[in-house]
């Protein structure tokens, strides 16, 4: 098995991250919802006050191979706040290219996010998964995550831009 490195994303990774975001959206059958651009990823993740943080998984070339590292996965996260438990981290996306799944790369990304969360004093690590993605749910449970829909009956909601405009009276 090739050597894998999990590292913090750099601004120059935004093209690869966007490509992987699109692959994830296609896998989730939601590609039409991807509106983000490489420029927005750069501005929002690498400015003075980043809106998100990102890890990338790289396959490192064997010694003597001419090509450089190849980005095969990512985990995009940000910090949130719980009025009950304080600091939390939310993993918005985790994705590993299909041909690299089953090698522990996703688990390594999740473990690194957990490490970052603990270093920042977070009490919880949250994420969401589509109800049909049993493989991901099984992985999260195997790593110790609790399914809040099963355990507590929580449902996730969102307001889209038009609904926000109406709410804000704009």
From TrEMBL:
Key words, A-Z: Acyltransferase, Coiled coil, Transferase
Domain of life (superkingdom): Eukaryota
The keyword Coiled coil is annotated on this UniProt entry: yes
Keyword Nucleus: no
Pfam families according to UniProt: Acetyltransf_1
Ranges of residues in domain N-acetyltransferase: 4-166
GO molecular function terms attached to this record: diamine N-acetyltransferase activity
Gene Ontology BP terms: polyamine metabolic process
Coiled-coil stretches: 17-44
EC number(s) given by UniProt: 2.3.1.57
InterPro entries: Acyl_CoA_acyltransferase (IPR016181), Diverse_Substrate_AcTransf (IPR051016), GNAT_dom (IPR000182)
Gene3D superfamilies referenced in this protein's UniProt entry, alphabetically: 3.40.630.30
Protein family membership: Belongs to the acetyltransferase family.
Subunit structure: Homodimer.
Protein name according to UniProt: diamine N-acetyltransferase
């Amino acid at each position: 098995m090739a050597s894998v490195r999990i590292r913090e994303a750099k601004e120059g990774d935004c093209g690869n991250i966007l490509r992987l975001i699109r692959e994830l959206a296609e896998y989730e059958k939601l590609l039409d919802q991807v509106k983000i651009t490489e420029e927005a990823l750069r501005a929002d993740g690498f400015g003075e006050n980043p809106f998100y943080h990102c890890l990338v998984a790289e396959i490192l070339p064997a010694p003597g191979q001419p090509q450089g590292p190849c980005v095969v996965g990512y985990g995009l996260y940000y910090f949130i706040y719980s009025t009950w438990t304080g600091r939390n981290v939310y993993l918005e996306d985790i994705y590993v290219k299909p041909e690299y799944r089953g090698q522990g790369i996703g688990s390594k990304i999740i473990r690194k996010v957990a490490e970052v969360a603990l270093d920042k004093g977070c009490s919880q690590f949250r994420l969401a998964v589509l109800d049909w993605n049993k493989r991901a749910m099984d992985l999260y449970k195997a790593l110790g995550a609790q399914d809040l829909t099963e355990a507590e009956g929580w449902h996730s909601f969102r307001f889209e831009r038009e609904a926000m405009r109406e709410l804000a009276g704009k």
